[in-house]
Amino acid sequence: MKRTRFRRVTLLLLLLLVGGAYGGAHLWALGHYRMAREALARWDFDSAAQQLGRCSRVWWFRTGEVRLLQARTARLAGNNDQAAELLRECRELGMPDESLELEHYLLRALQGELASVERALISRVLEGHSETVAILEVLTPIYLKTYRLQTARECLNRWCAWEPNRLQAWILSAQVNERLRAKDDTFTSYRRVVELDPDNLPARLTFAGLLCERQGPREALAHFEYVRSRRGDTTEVLVGLARCQRLLNETGQARQLLERVLADHPQNGAALAERSRLALASESAAEAEKWFRRAVKIMPFEKDVVYGLYQCLEQLGKGQEAEEVLTRLKRIDADLERLADLTAQIAHPRRSPALRCETGLILMRNGREAEALRWLESALLEDPEHAGTHQALGESYERIGNPERAVQHRQWALAVGREMR
């Protein structure tokens, strides 16, 4: 009797010990799984992969669920081959078709097959699917890269409604709205980025510049000083501070800061432009004219700078030259209006390589080579054999000092032209 009782007690203790160990292991794995999801929300893919690797050692009964999240992590990190292999493992483990199907769609979109899966993904977003954010994380950068900017903005509006505190969404929103030249929305996006990530110094600098335009220099000055305390007296910080001080009528301090910058960087366009405005506001039209001429040489397509030179010439009675500058201003205005029209047309989902090419050419004509290249490359994504785009890229690469790429695109343009005859 005693032996039987002893065995029962021993067995019970063993069961409790095993159960406790199992429960502890389960809680340990659950903690790492949650940390993996949190890391994914921060786009910290290395940390997410490490946490999921730990989960897989214990959660043998939830292997499929872990593998699926590992596949998503690999996809988000740009490891598409690894993601595809993990999805194959998920299928073998019997994961539900809907979960696998969505991941396959997202992976295909990233691999350049958006057209074949776009409708299925968008329909899920419109239905308020539980994985809406995961879909928008994929679609938004693709739309941004291909300059479907209005569609990208619609995605971001939905994304921010789902996750109002998601930093990555607001960073993308700022980029999209800048390219759309939507000033109010750009301001709102950068303000939110700074609220969510106070030490994002590039975003804070941009926000400070926007504050100068909208709400006055006093608040902007505090942001420039914040960046200065962490980054030191960089050119961008000093020019921003000088701008604030000019607007606050602290002209002496503004002049000293600009003299410091121009002593080391005499060809800095932003500093020359600010020094020109300072001269026009607090010195004389003749002095401002000298500075504006220097600024225009560096920034010949900057509307505000060209207009400043025009003002000086008008005040000094140099009518003929003022008319020539006014003609240049009108051409810049016409280009800006055409860019707005093209951006609106390109927002539609139909293929538009010719419109994208024209956009690139206008930007190139106005000295915005980097943005021009992005538009021209987006035209080739729609039509790799668009001869006009290859010719434009040849010109663009020639201007930025890349003769090999220039020759390559010109040869493609000639080859495409011969095939079309």
What does this structure look like?
This protein is mostly helical and 421 residues long. It is built from 22 helices and no strands. Among the domains are: 88 residues, Serine Threonine Protein Phosphatase 5, Tetratricopeptide repeat; 62 residues, Alpha Horseshoe (Serine Threonine Protein Phosphatase 5, Tetratricopeptide repeat), CATH 1.25.40.10; 67 residues, Serine Threonine Protein Phosphatase 5, Tetratricopeptide repeat (Alpha Horseshoe). The termini are far apart.
Key features of this structure:
mainly alpha; Serine Threonine Protein Phosphatase 5, Tetratricopeptide repeat; 421 residues; 82% helix
How is the topology of this model organized?
Elements: H1 2-41, H2 45-58, H3 63-76, H4 80-92, H5 97-110, H6 114-126, H7 132-145, H8 149-162, H9 167-180, H10 183-196, H11 201-214, H12 217-231, H13 235-247, H14 251-264, H15 269-282, H16 285-298, H17 303-315, H18 319-346, H19 353-365, H20 369-382, H21 387-399, H22 403-420
The helix-strand sequence is: HHHHHHHHHHHHHHHHHHHHHH
The mean pLDDT is 86
CATH architecture of one domain: Alpha Horseshoe
Could you name the CATH class of one domain? Mainly Alpha
